[in-house]
Amino acid sequence: MEVLSAFRSLELSPVDYLDALIERIEALDGTVNAVIDVMGEPAREEAAEAARVYAAQSFGRGVDGPLPPLLGLPLLVKELHDVEGMSATRGSRALAGAVADADHPIVDRLRAAGAIPFARTTTPEFSCATFTQTAAWGITRNPFNPDFTPGGSSGGSAAAVAAGFGPLATASDIAGSTRIPAAFTGLVGFKTPYGRTPAVPPLNADWYRGDHVLTRSVADSALATNLIVGTHPRDHVTIGPAHVLPTEFTGAAGVAGMRVAVSRDLGCYDVDAEVLAGLDSVVAALADAGAEVVEVDVGLSLAEVNEVSSAHYGHLAAANMLRAAGGDIGLLEPYSQRFVEYTRAHAERVSLLDSLLMESRIQQQIAAAMAGFDVLVTPTSAIAVLEAGQDYLEPLDRPAGQLDFYWQAHMAVPFNIANRHPVLAVPSGVGPTGVPVGVQIVGHPYADDSVFTVGAAIEELLPFPQSPLMGG
């Protein structure tokens, strides 16, 4: 990150940078409504200490050994990820008054690396939607076009980073909650393979899950990944040893000779024209850079993807929401009630064992389509935009017919079902509404380096868009 270099050279003070970000939030967050609260004074004290360490180091009086890699860097934190002593309501009146007793493991790890949590970002209630709005925090809007959502559930994090409120923000993903906001806001979002990053019980054991960050560059995403991954005492399912990614890439040259599979629809999605245009731009750029690009038929069934994933969420996420609400569904937002009712109905029809058998079939279809290729590239979301302020309680009209649940308009879920695959979402262009579109790069299980290599090439070949709030 350029800002870290500026800290080390004393060209920029961590205190001045933090103050500039807080001033920016105060001036611009009325447009996007992405920030819940700012932890100003505690963050300034940490920034002042970081500035002292940098100054001492420059005069040869620094700490022994290397400085923490993110020393003094302001960090935006998704409200789902606890910050000790701060509210932990998940945007729900069911948890009114809840306060975090410890940092979430990824917050803890980023803090240990020198980052300074200074502001928290909005989510939908219990992070159960692909838009971001609650009665508690209002409607979060896309900094590229406020008529539309930045996505969800990490929509506040995405809007904040895209608006220039900070260099990175924490995010999570059980159904595209990192990748969908990345697609809608022109950012980089990594869905880690299951077990790479730690979380907290009970949903740390949800094998669809991954926690990470949203950034504006591939290298920044790789840097953050290296600081988050690895076994953690609070999460029994994390795996080791921690995989170390490169943080410097050869750009377009890195894909020469790679074999890239491409799927326009995974066999079952109704994809908007502007999304396909973005995919076509990526395909052409990779081919020009020397990759062998081949279109493949993944052959998924949307009905099966929806059936098995909805049953999974009914057994786990929805059941956890009901537990938090004391069994009173009336405490939840209308869209949360719809999510619970829809997914619980599937869970009643599909046992956990039957869902595992269905998941295995989908995993094998993806593996077969990727055989002989280094990565698979496909759109992140079939739908280019979702309107801000809508609850999407009714079936969603699409050119090829109605979808009974709007989540079916995104293409992220198959790779939560096949959740050992690393998936990097990157921008692929900007649609006619001014909202970005994106692709997701899918690697073989735990082959994380491959998706970053391709992502870095796309970043060089098709420079990522900046929101109007960033001056782009």
Automatic annotation (TrEMBL):
<dbReference type="InterPro" id="IPR023631">
    <property type="entry name" value="Amidase_dom"/>
</dbReference>
<dbReference type="Pfam" id="PF01425">
    <property type="entry name" value="Amidase"/>
</dbReference>
<dbReference type="InterPro" id="IPR036928">
    <property type="entry name" value="AS_sf"/>
</dbReference>
<dbReference type="InterPro" id="IPR000120">
    <property type="entry name" value="Amidase"/>
</dbReference>
<comment type="similarity">
    <text>Belongs to the amidase family.</text>
</comment>
<feature type="domain" description="Amidase">
    <location>
        <begin position="18"/>
        <end position="451"/>
    </location>
</feature>
<protein>
    <submittedName>
        <fullName>Amidase</fullName>
    </submittedName>
</protein>
